[in-house]
Structure formats: C-alpha cells, structure tokens
Amino acid sequence: MPVGITRDEALTLLHRYVKNPNMIKHCLASEAVLSALADRLGEDRESWAMAGLLHDLDVERTGGDLSVHGLEAARMLAERGVDPEIVEAVKRHNEQAAGEPRTTTFQHALAAGETITGLVIATALVYPDKKLASVKPRSIVKRMKEKAFARSVDRDIIRECELIGIPLKEFAEIALNAMQGISDQLEL
How do the domains of the chain map onto residue ranges? Predict the structure, then answer.
C-alpha cells in the first residue's frame, strides 16, 4: 500500500522538526519495533514503520503538551498526503489529545510499541555496559512490575499488546530484538 511519503522524506521531515538526539533515537527505535510487529502480525510493514518513525513529529513543536501532542503531527502528515491510516494511528497514539480511544490493531500496536521502547532503553541503561545486547526479555517483563523503575513509562499502554494478540513476554522479546538490530543507531 502506498504510504504517501518515502523513508528519506520522512527522515528529512523528522530532522526538521525534532532536534533532540534522544527523541530521534526514540523514533528510530519505534520504527524498528513497529516493523517487527507488522511482520509478526502480517500487516503492512512500510505503513507501520512510517507511523513508528513519525509518531512524535510534533513533540518539540507542541512542547510535549499531552493535550495537543499528536494532533499537530497528524495535521502535518495529512497535509503531505500521508496515508489516512497512518495519520489516524499517529493521532491516536496519544488518546488524551485525540479525544478518541484506540480501536484498531494498528493504533494499539503503535501506542504499545512506541511506549515499550522507553522501558527497553531504561532497562539497558542499568546494566554496567549499558548495551541492548545485555538485556533479556525476562528483565523487561520484570521491570514492568517495578512501578518506581522508569516511572514515566505507562505500563497500561504497553499491556495493549495483549489487545493485538501478543502476550507481554513475546512483545518484550519482539521489541528487544528489533531494537538490538539497530543498536548502533541507538548507540546502545
């Protein structure tokens, strides 16, 4: 399915609006995780990857204000002719601003997939070598239960993986493997 934007165009757009290197890495990690989820679920890899890459396009423009974050990105992408399914998934990854709940597999996957990246990175950073290669899926699942660990990571959103038919342990493994595949880009 044509997504309405190439990866090169998307990267250019991302770098135009997002300057924080850690946020760029988060978007790259989300792209990798969403690609792997699309493969696992037999969905359109290019569309899902694009949603992962661009979901936080407006984060700096909106100052991270959760009452509007996602809406601006959706508007920007719609104006560029990006596939409406991608636009809607980007909009609904932040239900607070969207004012509508997530209803599709794609929407749940984007929200859960982009959220688990924070938990995976936080888990890697507690290891002495601070490398994704040292992390095991069971460590991520264990950290899910520790509310004080990576406190800003919303565990309920990560658990939306179960709404798309992927148990938490498998979801953690998919996300970790995807992120390990681009560990050089993530510098972890």
Answer: 7-182
Q: What is the pLDDT of residue 138?
A: 96
What own/partner pairs with CB < 8 Å and gap ≥ 24 does 154-160 have? 154/115, 157/111, 157/112, 157/115, 158/112, 158/115, 158/116, 158/119, 159/112, 160/102, 160/108, 160/111, 160/112
- Select the CATH number that applies to the domain covering 7-182 from these four: 1.10.10, 1.20.58, 1.10.3210, 1.10.3290: 1.10.3210
Q: Identify the pLDDT of residue 1.
A: 53
Q: Identify the band that residue 37 occupies on the pLDDT scale cut at 50, 70 and 90.
A: very high
Q: State the pLDDT at residue 96.
A: 85
Q: How far apart are CA 32 and CA 175, in angstroms?
A: 8
pLDDT tens, residue by residue, 140-153 = 999 999 999 999 99
Structure tokens at 58: 């407006």
